[in-house]
């Protein structure tokens, strides 16, 4: 179906009535940009973004598989960010980047069903890709296979719905924003945002192959810059390899980790550097921006006058609020958007399998010495071996630093992007049963042989975890033998047969997940692979985490096919891997890395020839793409929604102490207090469970500044790195709870009178939900 004919009159239009002087300025600015860029639009482009934060209480977080790590507040919000690129009267592709641990087959299926209802055959599994950034600080329970939802006590409908709804809304925005525009690509090295966490496995790759590369992780960032013909730059998406594990396995605050932080920094940077003009060129500065640009004037009153003014505003008791009040008050409220597309910036994941953001290395917590090189243990045990981020021991600071490093590199690439994408928009997609693929590989001594992939299985080293988040008990990385006791435990669930044991060698099987079917499938077998093309850019979407060298081999294989095709790419092609896309199937190592059986090898589900299978099948897709030939769709993955089991208890009732109301302050700022930049302001409110209302596109926390004598203006909310919403209850089954709001005053905060405000929703015994708000006493920032 042609996008042009579908859109017709639905293209987004700016407001028709503007002042003549503004119109003249706009025309001059547009002409200036066209002169600078020197670009002729050849695509329709549209971008969108929507909140997918999900439940901020009680739900186990996805990534570390730590049952004690449950959500208890918000560090900053999670978003789905989408771009659509279309030929004016031809093919289109849709790419969605999620601030989530990974994509989910079930989420993908349900999003596609909604797109089918809304747009017909315009967006299908063939041209839609959904990819996760791999934060380990988002709510879990949204995948459909048993092994990925054990720690979340099964399926969590709120997590699932937040993702499906948010992805759909981001796509609707992108579709409605489709307008003529151009896309530019740029690449560059970022040296200090990732290290190899399994170097002993990497070193098992052939010496000649390793000698081709300067580093044992990929250091290249690839960035797309989207430029609307009328509005100028409207977004950027980039791909860079580093794990979303700057936040630790004990963190309870929902966070986009380093990539989510980088996205927030860049969107704020663009809004600030372009404030006040419709179409100003991006600033050369890449400093992390303050929140609210120039809408808040610096207050010039003397300090004692500020104190007197602040003293007149005492904490307000909790009072009823509307569901939409927090949406209207949040700093980036959609209700206050200008009549132009909002800038969207996404930091996408690629082959991050063995890449850690904890760049200082791994050390033993008891001795401070480096961990054992081969097994990442301390005195033979893995529990004490942890990687250290650049802000050690402060994980929030490490998250900021790694995010800021990616942000600064992206701004540099964005400002200097000059290579324009030109050529076809195209795609190829198929489903494959990875439990029994026949793979032709080179044979030692010459010739070829046919081998097979295996049903999914996880090795003993999987349970050892990594230096980003070690496991428990006596498991360790690099274990190719297993343990008799744990084999007995394994056999209570499923004893692997000889064929499976032989197929997975040298992996000792801990969980034979591919052959475990009760109460339903424990692991996937049918996986999607996909190629998206925009001119000379090719995106390989893969349903897992490729290690550094496995990603290099896949990119090189596809690039060789494409550059050898007649007239398609003329030798110029950018190939990027979009990891953790469309569904999730854990890791993909090289054959040589698999032999070492560190965490990544033990988590390579389909056996030692998994990478060879991917390369073989992607070469087929690339050949079809280059020759214009179709590919078979393959077997459909299952939809297991109706089989899901959820053991997470619902919210029954919220309560406060006698004489207190929801939203009342129970710990206020000190009387007549003055804070300096860099200080932390803490206020505690009587609150209710955040699962009652996710505050989607709203906020639980707000910092307001006094403008004039009585106007409170929002300046920071729970989507800000400096403001944390921390929720707690005195005991697991208590109906009472508190919200602690912590504001770390930025160095760029204006002097003035401030207050902190909380929004929430409480559930009665009868099930009704009542929204409330409350605010602290005012205080001075000098």
Provide an overview of this structure:
It is a single chain. This protein is an alpha+beta fold. It is about 25% helix and about 25% strand. The chain is built from 16 helices and 37 strands. Strands 1, 4, 5, 6, 8, 10, 11, 13 and 17 form a nine-stranded mixed sheet that branches. A seven-stranded antiparallel sheet has the order 7-2-3-33-34-30-28, with no helix packed on it. A hairpin with an 8-residue loop joins strand 33 (about 725-730) and strand 34 (about 735-745). Helix 3 crosses helix 4, helix 7 (about 255-275) crosses helix 10 and helix 13 packs parallel to helix 16. It is globular. It starts with a helix and ends with a strand.
Helicity level, as a percent range? Answer: 10-25%
Stretches where pLDDT falls below 50 for ≥5 residues?
Answer: 1-38, 276-283, 292-300
* Average pLDDT number: 92
Main beta sheet: strand number and arrangement? Answer: 9 strands, mixed
End-to-end separation: 60 Å
Structural class: alpha+beta
User: How many beta-strand elements?
Assistant: 37
The fraction of residues assigned to DSSP E strands is 25-35%
Radius of gyration: 26 Å
Number of helices: 16
Which term fits the overall shape? globular
Protein name: Neutral ceramidase
Domain Neutral/alkaline non-lysosomal ceramidase N-terminal: 43-616
Pfam families: Ceramidase_alk, Ceramidse_alk_C
GO cellular component, one term: Golgi apparatus
